[in-house]
């Protein structure tokens, strides 16, 4: 079943973007830890801005999914 997740209904904590990258959701903002496009890790101050320091990619919250724990 397709997800209709929005920023308002996202669970707090670790998220990915269609299974790639890693971010931490805090309210309506997120810290982008690992870029889903180029797979580079961001420093904390850049991660808190929500974009990739390496390729300038800004992930869409519509692609966000909670990290599944296996």
TrEMBL record:
Superkingdom of source: Bacteria
Protein name listed in UniProt: Uncharacterized protein
């Amino acid at each position: 079943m397709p997800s209709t997740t929005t920023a308002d209904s996202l669970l707090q904590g670790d998220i990915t973007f269609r299974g790639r990258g890693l971010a931490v959701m805090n309210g309506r903002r997120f810290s982008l830890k690992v870029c889903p496009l180029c797979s580079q890790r961001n420093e904390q101050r850049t991660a808190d801005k929500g974009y990739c320091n390496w390729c300038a990619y800004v992930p869409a919250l519509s692609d966000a999914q909670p990290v599944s724990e296996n």
